[in-house]
Amino acid sequence: MPQDAFTLRINAAELNETLKGGRINRINQPSREELSFIIYTGKRTLKLILSSNARDCGAYFTEDERENPLVAPNFCMLLRKHLQSAEILEVTMPDFERILCFKFLCTSDFSSCERVLYAEIMGKYSNLILTENGIILGALKMTSLDENTKRTVFAGAKYTLPEPQDKVNPSDTAALRNVLTKAQGDLGRFLFTRVAGLASATAELIAATYRGGDLTEHVTRFIFSNECQPCVLERENQPVDFFARNVKGGIPFPTLSAAQTYFYTKRRAAAAFAQLKRKLESTVNSAKKKHEQRLVLTLERKAAAEGCEENRMKGELLTANLYRLEKGMKGCVLENWYDGTQTKILLDPMLSPTQNAQQYYKKYRKQKRTLEALAPQERETRAEIDYAESLLSALSVASCEEDLRSVEEEMLGEGLLRAPQEKPRKKKDEIPFRTYEKDGFRIYAGRNNLQNDRLVKSGAPEDVWLHAQKYHSSHVLIKTEGRTLPDGVLLFAAQICAKYSDANGGRIPIDYCKLKHVKKPSKAKAGFVVYSEQKTVLAEPPEDST
């Protein structure tokens, strides 16, 4: 994003206009590289974020509620000590640097002084530094005397601006003109590499708007004019960048602050969604892998025990031919009256013929008991794997945080996730079903297995229930309220069911029947039902966002 000096100059002016005269009510540090300030401006209360994260560095307003650590970090405590209830005198940008300078009037019962908080917005070098009379009181990212750095940042040191780059300051008109007389090749690239305080996107925009004439005048006017047309550029409904000037395809906003708030809020939500989805998928995949390994072991034991009938048959043949056998024999060949073949049987020469027969019967009984014990284990393990696959299916079609939270809630209930134990939370309202309406008929779709169970319990016997055939999918319910169901409504509901299934495109068979024919077996996993009297319709997932 173009968090360059050009953009920050406009940002500083807007922040100054909004926050000047405001007072700090509360300071929090929700993450290692981010601080939030609750500021009362006299008219309203605002939440300002100052972030030094390399990816999200900036100063912007937000309404997001984020959980704060139980114990505030050291720098947060320092700011609370020195800035609590302080008045914001002004917000400026010093010397066209990528720095926002927040000047505070701090008063107490015994003293009054001015302190300055520098928000250095410089990508991976971003930092927050608090000073008084030019002396550093503390910083979010400190350096030590042992570090090999040209600029020291630690308490007691004098605050200095970062060393200038080997670029011309655009506020120095004479130096800028001298540099621009040598402009050649790609103008955008030239401006980016030779003029300080410009991001690549800003330099490209300056070059794109140049129509000939005095280049120095054009660059100066573009950078230092008060013209501002903020916008946010999105691709596939995800924010890509924000700009202080309008760009093609950008979503316009009244102020740069509003554009940044929208950009960061939506990007933060997308990042949180992706992080939670990865966490849940990783947990489910780990559980699935564990059950798959257990199934492999079960099948190996089952395969080893499946020769039990052969051992029983050998015991019977030995018992029937005891008169032909003697102790000390290592084996014999006997006629198998089951299939008329000759069967070779190994014998223990240390045992009598009767004892050899009993040995085969003993193996048979042990293997039979093993098979009887493994059968329910195999069914249970396969059911667990199928259940894990249903969770992965629900996660794969999740399109919003509510979808993920509903699956997370189910996993907590099933013990797949460990419940947080920090502090008791208020009981949350149940997450609602996905809700649709078609030709006066209400249609509901479950977000997870628990909701699928609730959906089955909440319907009337004559309501129509749908589920993808031979695939994991959401349960879908059409509330008929005694009315005849039109084909168009049925097809619409089938398309919803196809959308929220793990089938990969194409025409998907969707089973449907009246809800009275849907039953949940006793002790069955969440979301598992059996049904009868069903019919099938082929449906394709809708192409739109329905």
Overall number of strands: 22
- Within the largest sheet, what's the order of strands? 15-16-18-17-19-22
As a percent range, the share of helical residues equals: 25-40%
Count of alpha/pi helices? 12
Q: State the separation between the terminal residues, measured CA to CA.
A: 32 Å
- Mean pLDDT across the residues is 89
Instruction: Note the overall shape.
Output: elongated
Walkthrough of the structure:
This protein is an alpha+beta fold. The protein contains twelve helices and 22 strands. The protein has helices spanning 5-19, 74-83, 173-180, 187-194, 200-208, 215-224, 256-305, 308-320, 353-396, 401-414, 449-458, 487-499; strands at 23-31, 34-40, 45-51, 58-61, 87-92, 99-107, 112-120, 127-132, 135-139, 231-235, 238-243, 251-252, 331-335, 342-346, 434-438, 441-445, 464-468, 476-479, 508-514, 518-519, 530-531, 535-539. The strands form six sheets. It has a six-stranded antiparallel β-sheet with strand order 15-16-18-17-19-22. Strands 5-6-7-8-9 form a five-stranded antiparallel β-sheet. α7 packs antiparallel against α9 and α7 runs parallel beside α10 (401-414). The longest helix has 50 residues, at 256-305. The chain starts with a helix and ends in a 7-residue tail after the last strand.
